[in-house]
Amino acid sequence: MEYSSFNNSLLSFLQASPTPFHATDSMRRALLAKGFVELFEADDWVIEEGKQYFVTRNESSLIAFTAPSLNFSQTGWRMIGAHTDSPCLKLKPNAQVDRFGYHQLGVEVYGGVLLHTWLDRDLSIAGRVTLKTDNGEIVSRLVDFKDPIAVVPNLAIHLNRGVNDGFSVNPQEEILPILCGVENEFDLHQLLISQLEAQYTDLSMASILDFELSLYDTQAPALVGLHQEYIASARLDNLLSCFVGLQSLLDSDSRCPSLLICTDHEEIGSLSACGANGPFLEDVLRRLTPNPEQYVQSIQRSMLVSADNAHALHPNYANKHDKNHAPAINKGAVIKVNANQRYATNSETASVYRDIAAEENYDVQCFVVRSDMGCGSTIGPITSGEIGVPTIDIGLPTFAMHSIRELAGSHDAYGLYKVLARFTQRTTLISRSN
Q1: Which terms in the Gene Ontology molecular function aspect does this entry carry (predicted)?
Q2: Coil, strand, or helix at residue 328?
Q3: β-strand partners of 129
């Protein structure tokens, strides 16, 4: 895929993926279009050599893999990992709030949100709704209002004179979106029914049973900057890595068994049935290699590239970085290192990645957090700790991580796609004497 086509497809993917459910559905559709066969965990699996497969869990996590050979214990896997979730505001179960003449929504903060960035934005609602049909079935459907239907207005400076000296947002009282005035009737369940009926004309609903809904910014993703070298969008952390991994897998020549795993709930610790700290990946791999000894052999002949955004040096806040480990946007993907295993990179996995990047003439940077600051983490140490796979943590340099609108480099995204596509073709990793 060429540079311009890649970035246009990336922007379309970001726009179509306001929630983990929608991101997983977007990837599912792309895989089906490329001839991947959908598997279901409750069914028996028959895997055929030369074919390509995928499976989802909870409609918010996905594993896709190629099987050019079924001798996984000898070939191992070339794995790429990312996560589908992003910090956001989620609707509470009893979300309707009427205060001082306005219909509002009660929300809960999901993950490490930069709350002030959600103020004065044109917001919409998307997610999953579970309902009962007229014939008694319980089913789930995705919903996306797309239109800006909510807003959280800022407080005027005249009523908050010290706002520029220090600012915080109370998540219980001060971040509730306004939908409309109370002179207009509003019933959330009826609103959802109307939206679902518009999206699914063949669906006959008896009642809404429950929902998992999030707010999101309706401003479209865009290439920005004087030379359009930046990508500005919501949810770059970490849908950017999901898209790069997906395209790398789709465009691989399938020389080696390759696997993409995109899991939910990373932003809140990954401990769930469909998170990286759950059994999803191991369940799939053990079904593909049920013999215990061969399973261990397959893992030890594998490598995982855990791709999650990295902190670029911000020119206005340069003192937040170790000056010797200060990544720049559009200067290459970042190898993330931490002595306390917040990242899973080691010298061998880093060397493999550096070697592959050099083959693509693609620059590599390195990030280590300042020694007097705390460090975040990724799915890398979790996955490596769960199944024992050698792992490297990398990421694309990003500004404003966890803001409602983040900024990354368009050249970085395309370069990482090229490197990961070559990684899926790499037949040998680390040579070891017998």
Answers
A1: aminopeptidase activity; metallopeptidase activity; zinc ion binding
A2: coil
A3: 141, 211
Please provide residue 198's backbone torsions phi and psi, each rounded to the nearest 5 degrees. Answer: -75, -35
Query: Does residue 432 carry a pLDDT above 80?
Result: no
Q: With residue 74 as reference, give the H or E element that holds it.
A: helix 72-75
Residue 235: CB partners within 8 Å, gap ≥ 6?
A: 14, 17, 18, 23, 86, 216, 406
Strand partners, 53: 37, 65
Domains of the chain: 3-86+234-423 (3.40.630.10), 88-217 (2.30.250.10)
From residue 340, give the alpha-carbon distance in Å to each of 138, 337, 375, 394.
46, 9, 9, 16
Residue-level pLDDT at 1:
80
- Residue identified by tokens 């990047």 is 357
- Distance CA(428)–CA(301), nearest Å, equals 9
Find the Cα–Cα–Cα–Cα dihedral 115, 117, 122, 124, rounded to 10°: -40
Burial 56-79 (b: 16+ CB within 10 A, else e): bbbbbbbbbbbbbeeebbebbbbb
Computed over every residue of the chain, the mean pLDDT equals 95
Percent of the chain with pLDDT over 70: 100
Q: Are 118 and 404 in contact (CB under 8 A)?
A: yes
pTM of the model: 0.96
Instruction: Give CA–CA dist 332/99, Å, rounded.
Output: 49
Backbone angles phi, psi at 349, to 5 degrees: -65, -35
Among positive and negative, which fits the CA dihedral 274, 277, 283, 289?
positive
> Helix count (H) and strand count (E) of the chain?
10, 20
Strand ranges, E, within 241-379: 258-263, 303-307, 310-311, 333-336, 364-367
